[in-house]
Amino acid sequence: MTTDARELPLQADDGHRWSLPARLPAQPRASLLWLPALGVAARNYLPFADALAALGIAVFVHEWRGFGSSNLRASRESDWGYHALLTRDLPASEAAIAQALPGLERVVGGHSLGGQLACCRLALRPQAAQRLWLVASGAPYWRAFPLPQRLWLPLAYRFLPWLAERRGSLPGRTIGFGGNEARGVIGDWARTALSGRYAAAGLETDLEAALSRVTVPVRAVALRDDWLCPESSLRFLLSKLRPARSRVVQMDAGDLQVRADHFAWLQEPGAIARTLAGDLSIELG
Q: What keywords does the record list, in alphabetical order (predicted)?
């Protein structure tokens, strides 16, 4: 199947600029806005986008501010949180998709933090998509993790925002967690991790109440050896929604032909692409 590769230049209403990579099959049957994990640039998902495009799904990979093609970098002088990601950047990517492929069924999905924010975006704007896809995603709430992680996670969740405040941004590459993260993002993330509740500094909407009104069908992939997002954390995230139907597929190394951990699937994304695309095949195939 012929695929058209594009880069769409975008700008948020506060001046933030980035590029939206797109992979467009000749006759797409749906569009997907894919949200990356914490600290991961959009380009890392292009093999995944190509695999889905070969199955007839148009894929647009969002770029988080502060990474890849974004013109911003987190620092003491440049900070943002979930509020900007959810209400400034994602609407611009959604509008670009609507212009490029009007009338096509929309799917939103994400990896890790991207999956969480896909849920939150649907909570804020239910008409943003008709389906939700999650891969290696789940709420970071410490009580949703198995032992022994529950013993040390609360300490980590307090240390990381403290470090980000002290340094002006989180030096993720140095400590081996995330990238150079805005302290506002880490503050919002840690608040959920400690309380189990979603909120965004400066956002008036009650995200917890809004999440309970998300009713789109959900297909989620949990990876057997993923300690960062075990299936228990995914189930906790899904418990906040009220989907019309949901299906969780657990995949192991035999399914993927690569380690079934948080990031290795990006090296061999074909099996996950086929699993997600099967969600559409049930009704459209």
A: Hydrolase
**In sequence order, what DSSP letters do the residues of 18-61 get, joined into one string?**
EEEEEEEESS-SEEEEEEPPTT--GGGGHHHHHHHHTTTEEEEE
Length of the chain: 285
- Asked whether residue 284 carries a pLDDT value surpassing 50, the answer given is no
State the Cα–Cα distance between residues 197 and 192, nearest whole angstrom: 5
**Can you give 59-123 as a three-state secondary structure string?**
EEECCCCCCCCCCCCCCCCCCCCHHHHHHHHHHHHHHHHHHHCCCCCEEEEEECHHHHHHHHHHH
81-96 as b/e, with b when 16 or more CB fall inside 10 Å? bbbbbbbbbbbbbbeb
Is residue 195 packed enough to be buried (19+ CB in 10 Å), middle (13-18) or exposed (0-12)? middle
User: How do residues 28-67 score in pLDDT, each as one tens digit?
Assistant: 999 999 999 999 999 999 999 999 999 999 999 999 999 9
pLDDT in tens, 182-229: 999 999 999 999 999 999 999 999 999 999 999 999 999 999 999 999
* Long-range contacts formed by 228-233: CB under 8 A, 24+ apart: 228/112, 228/136, 228/262, 229/112, 229/136, 229/137, 229/138, 229/262, 230/138, 230/145, 230/146, 231/138, 232/138, 232/144, 232/145, 232/146, 233/138, 233/139, 233/140, 233/141, 233/144, 233/145
Q: Are 118 and 35 in contact (CB under 8 A)?
A: yes
Half-sphere exposure of residue 41: CA atoms within 13 angstroms, side-chain side: 13
Q: How far is CA 64 from CA 88, 107, 115, 171, 233, in A?
A: 11, 18, 13, 16, 23
Question: How many other CB atoms sit within 10 Å of the CB of residue 13?
Answer: 10
| Amino acid in the structure at residue 114 | G
